[in-house]
Amino acid sequence: MDVSFQATEKIRKLTFGFADKDDIRKLSVVRVFRSESFDGLGSNIKNGLYDLAMGPTDFHSVCTTCGKGFRDCTGHFGHIELPLPVYNPMLEDILRKVAKMVCVECCRVSVSGRTTFLFIKQLKNLSAGRIEVVFALKEVIESRVVRTKAELIALVNALESRWRYEGRSAGGSEAIGSLRREIMRGYFKLNSAKCDKCTRKNTQYVYSEGKMFLRNVVRDKAAVDGQILVAPVRVLSDLRKVWKNDRKILRALLPGITADSFFVRVVPVMPNRFRPLSAREGEDKFECSTSRLLGDILRKGNEIVAMSKNENEDRVRRILDLAGEMQKSLAALYGLSRSNPQKDPTFVPGVKQIIEGKNGLFRNNIMGKRVLDVPE
After folding, report:
1. CB 267 within 8 A of CB 294
2. For the residues of 128-167, what is the DSSP string, one character each?
3. Which whole-number Å values give the CA distances from 353 to 100, 124, 335, 359, in the listed order?
4. What helix, strand, coil percent values describe the chain, rounded to 5?
5. In terms of CB atoms within 10 Å, which of 8, 118, 143, 329 comes out highest?
6. How far apart are CA 211 and CA 204, in angstroms?
7. Mean pLDDT per segment of 10 residues, for the chain of length 376 residues?
8. Residue 362 in contact with residue 354, Cβ under 8 Å?
9. So what's the pLDDT on residue 341?
10. pLDDT of residue 344
11. Any alpha helices (H) in the chain, and if so which ranges?
């Protein structure tokens, strides 16, 4: 290391985001589409969960990507292509809130344009550090006084000109971050029986247990108790329209999140060294919990592909059921399963539980000090 080198740049901000399907494909060295890992002779199957392209599985094998052995190869990612999109378990809570605000008839946010305008201005002034303007706009929203768009614009301009720019970052203070979350909660709570944009009765999306339903559906014969199950592909299409029609408020509320962020089309497969096999010399090899969950996702995906080629009357219903099961397997892989590990004998620990089990190692080794917080 050159100790005489002086850095000319300083890191002022660090942000986190989700890797999209293109990022995962670029990172991957092999597509995994076979649910079997080993053949009858115990050899690694190509395009299986333990393909040697993702790294050696023991001291006797060699990585086919970098040519290194078990000790030196750091491992390489693979990926699984899902036959249809499933909901991102990491964003379930946000999806549930967004879905309730969507008007299915016109694919717009059902909140009035004037109220939305005030919330956008709140968030922009918060980012600019004009806290007094944020609280003043909050009083305007809570007063429920009916004003025209021109009157609101004049009011906002007057408030902004009264308070000078203070140069504070919205992410630089815990109090400001808390205020931002409060603004978001306030907007997500707004709801009405009719859409303010098209004035039609608001037929809502309702997200529950990994499935999306249309509520207040009375014309469709397939509706049960006023609800009908909707395919994720249809939901994705509608959310893309919503993001296009109301991108200003959605970008302000959910920066860095798009309609596609709520769906998973490609699942990353961790390198083999991070999914160690359990085996003794001369005995059968047993996959780790992560590999078993990935295998479940693969099998469900293959069943969906096979079912889509059939001409059965209940084909669509069966595909949606399989997609729901694949959704549960994906949530379990992330460690976000709703199963109680104390009561469910079939519970399989996911990535979250594995990381939590190493909590002490993170606490004692990050920067060589004992820390109070660790990333989840």
Report:
1. yes
2. HT-HHHHHHHHHHHHHT----HHHHHHHHHHHHHHS----
3. 31, 38, 6, 10
4. 45, 10, 45
5. 329
6. 14
7. 66 80 94 88 88 91 92 94 93 90 87 89 86 87 81 85 57 73 89 78 79 68 63 92 92 90 94 83 73 92 89 82 90 78 67 72 57 51
8. no
9. 62
10. 64
11. 21-27, 92-101, 113-128, 131-143, 149-162, 174-189, 232-245, 247-253, 289-308, 315-334, 351-357, 359-365
Counting every residue written for the chain, the total comes to: 376
**What is the distance between the alpha carbons of residues 355 and 361, in angstroms, rounded to a whole number?**
10
Structural tokens at position 296? 């479940």
pLDDT in the model for residue 373? 53
265 with 21: CB under 8 angstroms? yes
Closest CA to 80 of 328, 376, 374, 300: 300
**Which tokens sit at 47?**
């395009």
Q: Are 344 and 362 in contact (CB under 8 A)?
A: no
Q: In the prediction, which pLDDT does 64 show? A: 93
The structure tokens listed for 248 are: 């200003």
Whether the CA torsion 315, 319, 322, 324 is positive or negative: it is negative
